[in-house]
């Protein structure tokens, strides 16, 4: 039995709708349908009745529900117990988007280690879609991202606000399109905003998911990119980089998401979060 199919069944029950379940799991609606069909085929019973208003659990599905919940809980415990390295008392699966690793993710990792030295930490880096999927499927215990994953049993809190500014390796004013412009992917909200502010057909010469790579590229090759102001304050003061005159700024709030069931025994976590807020160089989130 595929555990992902069981987890998908539980999310469909919770949301009451295959489309909403797909959004929660960050997969397509056809994937949700395929998983449910595979599960029903394996069991030889219809678990859900689909209609225009959503999905309703059948009598058999209701009986399977409690077993599905036990299966998922047992798997969580197995994953925790078997992943515990020798000499450690606990494991933390920490996720962070690529664009937030520089500064924020690295600092959070160090603080987690400081506050629980006997805890092993596994770091997962990816894009915003990866983080949402990992949280929804219990693959990470806590994560930092711009687009918070609204998953069941997940606590979400704002950490800080990033101000994204366009910087260039040469002083210049805003132009219709810079042929050396490098695009950094900060998620769906930024993509929509970017299209609105720069409605051109031109394509960026290079696209990065990691802002540190983008910075290295434009510094060595020349060009421009949108980057968090906190990462380039020194470069702006030293005039090795320049904010583009009249270029619009974009504000993004970074969030910390964590599973309450997994972290409720971590009495040290609130102090770790507060330590991060005190030490992080950036704007506090409202």
UniProtKB/TrEMBL annotation:
Domain of life: Bacteria
Keyword ATP-binding: no
InterPro entries in the cross-refs: LysR_HTH_N, LysR_subst-bd, WH-like_DNA-bd_sf, WH_DNA-bd_sf
PANTHER family cross-referenced by the UniProt entry: HTH-TYPE TRANSCRIPTIONAL REGULATOR (PTHR30126), TRANSCRIPTIONAL REGULATOR-RELATED (PTHR30126:SF21)
UniProt KW keywords: DNA-binding, Transcription, Transcription regulation
Domain HTH lysR-type: 1-58
Pfam families: HTH_1, LysR_substrate
Natural source organism: Mesorhizobium denitrificans
Molecular-function GO terms, alphabetical: DNA-binding transcription factor activity; transcription cis-regulatory region binding
Name of the protein: LysR family transcriptional regulator
Family label: Belongs to the LysR transcriptional regulatory family.
